[in-house]
User: Fold these one by one.
Assistant:
Number 1:
Amino acid sequence: MIVAPSILSADFSRLYEETKDLYAYGAEWLHIDVMDGHFVPNITIGPVVVQSLKKHLKMVFDVHLMISDPRFFAKAFVDAGADIITFHYEATNDVLGMLSYLKSLGVKVGLSIKPHTPVVVLEPFLKELDVVLVMSVEPGFGGQSFMPLALDKIKYLAKQKQENHYPYLIEVDGGINEQTGQLCAQAQAEVLVAGTAIFKASNRQEVIGRLKQL
């Protein structure tokens, strides 16, 4: 299992201190939630923060654009050091165009859906994706409870991947802890985004280690 700690739950006043040991603890990816206050009712960070962290961390920077105009901001995040850019199906009328644009920037591409968006809307795009991100909470704020409806979406994506030999990784974000992570693992998720479960833990290394073993 790939573990991607979400900095949304970190202490932003000491962000480097919060993240500098995660790779040594076994977390390969760093999940960065970008919110614009429009697509979701919260505002987080911009490319300058990504650029600052990238100078010091070896991790894969997994940037999740929860914004209304992902095309406008994508290049700035790629230039800042994003390794993966994931945008929302609900945020654009031209998914294929956005995927093509991201690939032209030399970045891996991901597509995400909100909890109540049917997973079948992704079917025309699956062969183009490096990552499919299933939201198991309403995007916008950390600390929410896991929504079990995500599990059927994970199973559907796993079935499509197996039957069609698609290369994407199945990522899940929202309310992930050891118990919900186990359910996602059983449904064949491959990347777990965990915020509160890691950053609020008394022993982050142990939590990451247990998530990796799911």
Number 2:
Amino acid sequence: MQYETYTIHRERIRVGPPALRRVALFTGAYNHIADGVSLTLNRLVSYLEAHDTEVLIFAPTITDPPVDHAGILAPVPSVPVPQRSEYRLSLGLTSNARSLLRTFRPHLFHIATPDLLGYQALRFAGREGIPSVASYHTHFSSYLKYYGFGRLEGQSWKYLQHFYDRCRHVYVPSQSMAEVLHSRGISKGIRLWMRGVDTHRFNPAHYDTGWRRSIGVEDDEVLVSFIGRVVREKGVHIFTDVLKNLQQQGIKHRSMIVGDGPVLNELRDRLPHTIFTGRLENEQLARAYASSEVFLFPSDTETFGNVTLEAMASGLPTVCADATGSRTLVEHGKTGLLAAPGDTRAFVQAVQHLIRHEPERRRMGAAARDCARQYDWNTVMAHMVRYYDEILYPEGPWSGDGYAGNGIEAPTTQAIRVP
């Protein structure tokens, strides 16, 4: 049996026998932060390794990372992002990384972040004649307005157009995100790669009256929750304004913020009556979702909305911004309510309506749970294998019923519609 050996940080790694696919994955987030991007990519790597694919990941890391990562990670040099030290800024491909790539001999480059590392990987792949694909995880251009750089949005889109035009495929998590990219001149090779949810973990059955009481929520109080990274671009200022408005109107409720981030202390000062749990994981996180009544997530920067889908799987009606990502998941009036981005009054009215109308709240929560069941992780990940093989094996191995040998159905790409 043939094995291949290569070295990372003086440690010799044996991999083999040679797989049907060898993929080099480049990302700005993999194990140093537990966000939607890193968790999705770790799940992807686990799936790929179980389906005849070797993966070598190039990403920044830290001494004691919060994520027990999947696969083999080749760390790249990085520095903390100014004012956002929880993120790392990759400094590009080193000579050692380039040597490692030549030893690994990837069939495909998958670039998850269009940063310096991603750009240098794209150029390296071009010189070596290796096809590149990209996945669109973070709506970076929409973040600029929150940090005083809104004037740079046009330039950022020009760079992104240049970057993604050089990729064979661009994987987007939602139809609405595909439409945004197309409006900005990015339409080549667009493929739909949604996100999934574990409906066994995120489940209404985890509702816990005792836990609610332990954090100070009375049995007859409606708990309105925000779950996610506590950062400006997630619309936390809208969340804060909604709660203050509800309090001024004397509408009985409780509020909870689950998560951590750079503006957490600011919110603690502004919301003295709100419950702050910090970051939760696994069963504790599932319990926090299921023990709430309303999920309020005003972010207008999402490409998909992982936390929204987790809330829906937990049986919660959701109140979200009528914006990219969220509008793909939330059906207004059926699984939740949508409000115009930044319209505090609309968000207040939506939350107020759900607090006051329990039967409708329960109906929407049940419909949200039913909708979430459609997002099975195995189906979502199987699409990626199929997309890779469109490039690597254009003449096969395919059959009319899907992928011969692996039992993977060909994904439906017609879901992507562009004007």
Number 3:
Amino acid sequence: MPELLTAYDTLILAAVCGYLLGSVPFGMVITRLMGLGDLRAIGSGNIGATNVLRTGNKRAALATLLLDGAKGAVAVLLARLIVGAEDAAQVAGLAAFMGHLFPVWLGFRGGKGVATFLGLMLALDWRVGLACCATWAVGAVISRISSVGALLAAAVCPVWLFTFDHGRMLLLVLVLTVLIYVRHSANLLRIKAGTEPKIGRRKTGPS
């Protein structure tokens, strides 16, 4: 974590704005606009792109993935542009991530944060972000399980930080990684049991 040099009131404002941006449930907005039904009543009820894909609409899932990633990136970039400090950028990114996981509009029941995590990593350092995206893709393709790619990308992210000399982001990444693993606790149990659904296979149960 960079040294906190920005005034605390500015950091709080960055956090509030980041949280509000991150809490926008794009998955629910898109599925309703496209007439795909109530996302909470589909599959796992999760608001992320993986569950949107269970509607059978790949365009809706892709739009959700991109927008969920964009809100993490935009939070970081706006804080960096307006405040001009990396501490504010990291605070805004963390707050956007928390907003996605715990949106006030949905009773604090949000998504699992993978797309938002990748988006804010791309904004903080595009090299680290691309490495994380590649790690996710490799893990998902080899295992054919999206959650495996996500968990692998989060776990390996600290390695990419030091590869690209970004140790000052380590505390932020560790917090994000722990939260991703907590949100994927059910997935971890199913991976261990061999019952986690494969990519492209529709499923009506939890995920």
